[in-house]
Design a protein that fits this description.
heterodimer; A: Rossmann fold; seven-stranded mixed β-sheet; 13 helices; 12% strand; B: mainly beta; Ubiquitin-like (UB roll); two-stranded antiparallel sheet; 7 strands; 12% helix
Chain lengths: 319, 66
């Protein structure tokens, strides 16, 4: 198999694009797709300060690497979840990346800052671990982006993530979630602007980008995600994609093009969020879900102040 | 050939020579959900793998919604 661009031996074939690429041209393809997503969806300006939520996995590290390669001012945000050896290894991957690329990183540790971790938080709040994790991430990503004065919060959601979430939301007709399933969520009412620059790229393309560019990412799955229904949705969609390449992209971008507006109009009840009584974050009233989770887990709700990000080289190397 | 699988980590043996696509098909693995790596390099589906090769079949599907 030859590279579609240069005819050198190809490393990866992308059937949905009827193309195959060598390492150099796969990387160029990924950069082009990210820039196209940023431009097409008017995600952020060339001089924007971007906060990238990084987990140590392939998507977030690849996103950070791609944004830097495209010349953006991209800072990382790592949230220590306290999921045993898995979190320790995740952090190691993030720190190795920051050391290798000399990029600024903001770190927040759940246990140190709020007195709980995901396993105890999930148990105490009677949520699934993925629910407690998602709630914590959304709250802290938002507050870190706002407190740090960033123009935009970028996450590593890729085409497979978005197609799987869309599949689940359609399967159960979660119209409120369908209304919010956009690659850009505007700032306002106490929320930062949020963007998903990887929506034009698949998980397989992201993993290949990491391997080609020497990005050592966390391959092992979170031990608490076993049985997660999104994994089943992704497997189902991959089965369809194998038989009909391009189906995932058609499904997701067809939704954005033809149906998303319908759900936004139908679910817009005009209500505005109000500040949480404890932390000030936007919520529907009283105390926000994050503060209730922290309290049930025996921790201490508090404001997080995000100071200037640090470069690892400023700290005298790895600890 | 020796095949390294992840999540959970394990090793199995598979007969070679065989194309990457054939190895995946024999193991019942959907190509959309994995990359095949030999000597640190990704190999596409039409690559011929020899009986003495060692490969990793790396899953690319992440849990959750990102």
């Amino acid at each position: 198999m030859k590279c579609t661009v240069c005819r050198e031996p190809a490393l990866i074939d992308l059937r949905r694009h009827n193309a195959a690429f060598c390492g150099e041209h796969h990387s160029r393809f990924c950069r082009d797709q990210v820039q196209r997503a940023i431009d097409d969806f008017d995600m952020f300006a060339p001089d924007a300060r971007v906060l990238v939520a990084v987990s140590g996995g392939k998507d977030s590290l690849a996103l950070w690497h791609l944004l830097k390669a495209l010349g953006y001012d991209a800072h990382g945000l790592y949230l220590g979840l306290g999921i045993g050896e898995y979190s320790d290894a995740s952090r190691d991957h993030v720190l190795a990346f920051t050391d290798a690329h000399d990029v600024p990183l903001v770190e927040i540790d759940l246990l140190d800052t709020f007195g709980y971790d995901i396993p105890t938080g999930a148990q105490a709040s009677r949520r699934t671990p993925c629910s407690a994790c998602g709630l914590s991430k959304r709250h802290l990503f938002d507050s870190a982006a706002l407190d740090g004065g960033f123009d935009v919060l970028a996450t590593g959601h890729n085409l497979d993530d978005e197609a799987a979430v869309l599949f689940g939301n359609v399967l159960h007709w979660q119209t409120e979630y369908l209304a919010r399933q956009q690659p850009v969520l505007p700032a306002g009412a106490g929320f930062p602007r949020k963007v998903k620059p990887l929506v034009r790229l698949s998980e397989r393309e992201m993993a290949a980008y990491c391997i080609i560019n020497g990005i050592d990412y966390q391959v092992d799955e979170c031990p608490m995600s076993a049985g997660n229904r999104h994994l089943a949705y992704k497997e189902a969609l991959n089965g369809i994609e194998s038989r009909s390449p391009g189906s995932k992209a058609d499904f997701y971008f067809g939704f954005l093009r033809s149906a998303a507006d319908v759900f936004q109009t139908a679910t817009d009840d005009g209500s505005e969020p109000v500040p949480c009584e404890t932390c000030g974050a936007p919520c529907s009233g009283g105390r926000c879900a994050f503060c209730r989770l922290v309290e049930r887990a025996g921790g201490e709700p508090t404001m997080v102040r995000v100071d200037a990000p640090t470069r690892r080289s400023d700290q005298g190397g790895p600890t | 050939m020796i095949v390294r699988l992840r999540n959970p980590e394990r090793q199995i043996e598979a007969p070679g020579p065989a194309l990457v696509s054939v190895v995946l098909e024999r193991l019942g693995i959907d190509r959309e959900g994995v990359l095949v790596i030999r000597n640190g390099t990704i190999v596409p589906g039409d690559t011929r793998l020899e009986d003495d090769d060692e490969i990793e079949i790396r899953p690319v599907i992440s849990g959750g919604a990102g």
